[in-house]
Amino acid sequence: MIVTLLPFIAFLGAILTLFTPSKNLKALQGISLASSAICLAAVLYLFCTWDFSQAGFQHVRTWDFFAQAGIWYQTGLDGTNLVFCLLNGLVTFAGAWIAIRTTSRLKEYLFYYLLLTGCMFAVFTALNVFFLYVFYEMTLIPVFAMMGIAGIRAKKENAAIRVALYMTAGAVVGLFALLNLYDILGPGFLDLTQTQTILTSKAALLTPETQKWLAALLIVGFGVMTTLFPLHSWSPAFYSASPVSLAMVHAGVKVGPYILLRTAVSYLPEGFQFWSPWIAGLALAGILYGGFAALRQKNLRDLAAFSSISHMGTLFVAFAALNTASLSAGILLVFAHGLMTACFFALIGILEDRGQTDEINAFSGLGKSMPFFAVCFMLTAMASSGIPGFANFPGELMVFVSAWKSFPWTVAAGILGVLLTAVYMIRAVQALCFGQDHPRASTFKDIVCFSEKIPFLILLISLVIFGIFPAALLKVIQPAIEALL
Amino acid sequence: MNALNLSLFVPELMTLVFFAYFILESVLAGKKDRPSIFNEMAVGALLLGAALFLFGNKFGAGFGGMAVADAFGFYFKVFFTAVFFVVAFMSREQLKNTAQNNQGFGLILWSSLIGLYFLASASHLLVLFVAIEILTMSLYILATYGRHILATHNQHMLATPGNAKAIEAGLKYLVLGSVASAFMIFGIALLYLQTGTLSFAGLASAQNLLWSTPIGILGLLLFFAGIGFKIAAAPFHFWVPDVYEGSPAPVSAFLSVASKAAGFLVLIRFFQLSLSPLPQSWQIAFAVISAVTLLYGSLGALAQTSLKRLLGYSSISHAGYLLIAFTAGTAPASQSILYYLAGYAASTLAAFYAITLIEKQQGSDASKNLDGLAQTSPFLAGTFVISLFSLAGIPPLAGFMGKFWILFSALQAGQNALVGISLIAIVLGIFYYLSLVSRIILREPQSPATFEIPVSAKWILGLLSLLSIAIGLFQAPLIQAAAIAIKN
Fold it and tell me: N or C: which end of chain A has fewer CB within 10 A?
């Protein structure tokens, strides 16, 4: 029941904000913080009471929606969903603390923020492909609206249209493949709890040829939003114009890998296998392109975007290797990278708030005037560079180890990508936090009040916890991946 | 067979009775113009709706086999009544505070409803043709009504571009429409020549002659040309953008919803419910027509600056989606046409309602008038955005579900290429619809003008937006109704 309610807690919060007068800022902030806190608490409760003895789905509930067509609203969790829910809970809760500081049209902004939160939870809890797709595509509405309300003025229109086009183009390509699967496998295809049953009974219907091209469509379709090279070009434009809390959720909580896992990997294993070398090649290109491009960036937002493209390359290495260890590590990587990116964007937001720019070389010596900021920035940079102690390290390491056998050259290049990350991150840290005292920067106010510190504390502490105990997550993920493959 | 069975056609007869009543009332009112006629018509539409559910559920043939009351016609009659109800309010809004003849507009609008009702019950090509002509004749007149409306704002009547556009719209629609009607009646004559009958049942039993003889094929083609004009299918779509732009917004709304639905009613009833599935060669022809329609509409809409013109092109592309399902030709496909029309109607009517208000208060329907609407009028902006998202096909709104079922049924029927093309059109659609959305919510208002939205408009716009959401979220009832209608 809790699982089903998860998205609706956020939706309820969204509806409540609609009925709150827009002048009543305190109430609006309270509602959005409360609903995202309740969501996070619910996810943590589910995580703590998780039944490790069961590999399959837990808490499954079904609501008849339109059963003749196989469309029923079915919710439940297995290990993978749980981790994505946890990621979403942490990031949206942290983001809510930033979102409530939006200065213009707060009511609308929070409404859409909660709508987005709910949609994300719905994607991760729905066990019906139809609803998976519907909620995924539905996120376009809040994303578009939030860009409009609080985006950076000059660039926002272009960026919003661009992200909408990329996302829809990808989604319809994916939809085409899903409709074909629905046609071939029958209505039972939509039910994610029955994947294995359907596959064993109707495997003959999926010829290798069909598998191949359907898998290709799905990879392209849902790779767009996961910034699979060369479909990534929306990302720098979008993140340089989007409001901070939107960028946190959008860049942090990646839906694409989850959908790929649920559709292409589980229904079309052979087709996916066929494209593995291609994916590995694109992943390699993404790692190097993102890494080298990040080296050249002058702005932190662009740096974050390209760095994210590079890290997602590592994720696709995990997809290319396609074994239990690599996919589990891939999910761990998505989790860690999500927390890290969210934290990074939140820091960019602080810098923009104080200095009105995200240029790397605009300020220096922030370590003195803003010690808390500088410490967080350094920790985030360390996490991003894959230094042991943060969850990114076990994620990346395990991806590379498990992919070594199949794609040694890609892994070698991937390790170069890690080095690149270290270089551009250290350069950014050096330029911003150290160096001479900057006349303006020395007057900047540090992150002092507790409410401003909360998002950073949550994100960084979780990064460290799961960096020290990655097994806590892997124990949840692995059985689910085993069942899926 | 020869029985009149009048009791089956109570709703149709009621439209006539109401018409007589409205005429009498107008005569008695003398020269005084009565804007309240639209309120009475809305009540009339409600009564018709009630009559449909009370008396319209007895099915059978009547008028000596020339008309039929069945589930399929029932679905469309309910649909037309609902559309008319909204358009009546829209028209009142449009004509308010102008020196125009409300009565004339209202009476002609009502006569188009009569045409629609008889069209829904026709089971004979003659009745069908007469019904279509009643509808089209009314729309010829309504399309030029913009001339009167703009005349009050401008003293120099004929010199203003608005007038020129209204006259152009009326004339274009009249000339092209007459040609289409001529095609159609000629096609009907050829069908008669070949088979010696015009009733659907008779044509169905002689259909081997129709599909195989030159005269039969030519007859069917010409008949389709006439219908293609109604639904704005390529290559019979050239009138659409100009007529939509020049007509008053409620008339454009009526054209894009009721007139299009009427065309598909005829297509489904004649080609799919009466004749057998389309032969292979015809299917290919229709596939080409639907692909061209779809792409023409989507590409044409990209560069438009007038809202009505843009929605005109978008209505061409929606005809393309619907034709895809028609090409597929299976029962689920026809079912999805009926479902799609309902969602399309809710969203399109909301969009045109908003345009009516905007055009009225800003003086033009240029899309730059939308800039910053979210700040000047959040309610209008919200409803407009919902309808645009729905037309663009973003879940969970009605437009998405309609496209979902159409594409799925087309895939099932093996029309993979068509589905691929429609995916391109969907992405193009996202671009032009979201450009409007981005004007509404991303831009700053050009002038601090606020909108005055009457209570009735608030209710109806709110209702239409809710429908756009509800048809998408709770699709089972409507799809079941459509299934019953198609099973007939």
Answer: N
Chain B partners within 8 Å of A224 (Cβ): none
Q: Which of B117, B116, B173 is nearest to B145 (CA)?
A: B173
Q: Which of A97, A116, A120, A103 is nearest to A13 (CA)?
A: A116
DSSP annotation of A299:
B
Angstroms from A19 CA to nearest CA on chain B: 14
- Whether the pLDDT of residue B153 is over 70: the answer is no
Length of chain B (residues): 488
Task: State which residues of chain A have pLDDT below 50.
Answer: none
Residue A230 CB partners (closer than 8 Å, separation 6+)? A282, A285
CA dist., res. B456 & res. B460, Å (int): 6
Residue range B96-138, pLDDT digits in tens: 877 677 888 899 999 999 999 999 999 999 999 999 999 999 9
- Which residues of chain A make contact with B435, given a CB cutoff of 8 A? 161
Q: Name the DSSP letter for residue B445.
A: P
Numbers of helices and strands, H then E, in chain B: 22, 2
Q: Which two tokens mark B395? A: 């879940």
Chains A and B form CB pairs within 8 A to the count of 73
Separation CA B109–CA A86 (nearest Å): 58
Which pLDDT belongs to residue A479? 86
Contacts of A126 in chain B (CB under 8 A): none
Count of beta carbons in the 10 Å neighbourhood of residue B156:
8
Which phi and psi (to 5°) does residue B161 adopt?
Answer: -65, -35
Q: Search chain A and give the residue with CA nearest B428.
A: A165
- Please, which pLDDT band fits residue B147 given cuts at 50, 70 and 90? low
Residue A71's SS3 state is: strand
Q: Do B442 and A179 touch (CB under 8 A)?
A: no
ipTM at complex level: 0.88
Q: Residue B472: closest CA among chain A residues belongs to which residue?
A: A134
User: What distances in angstroms separate CA B324 from CA A178, B61, B185, B393, B417, one per listed residue?
Assistant: 19, 31, 26, 16, 10
Q: How does pLDDT run across A126-136, given as a tens digit for each residue?
A: 988 988 999 99
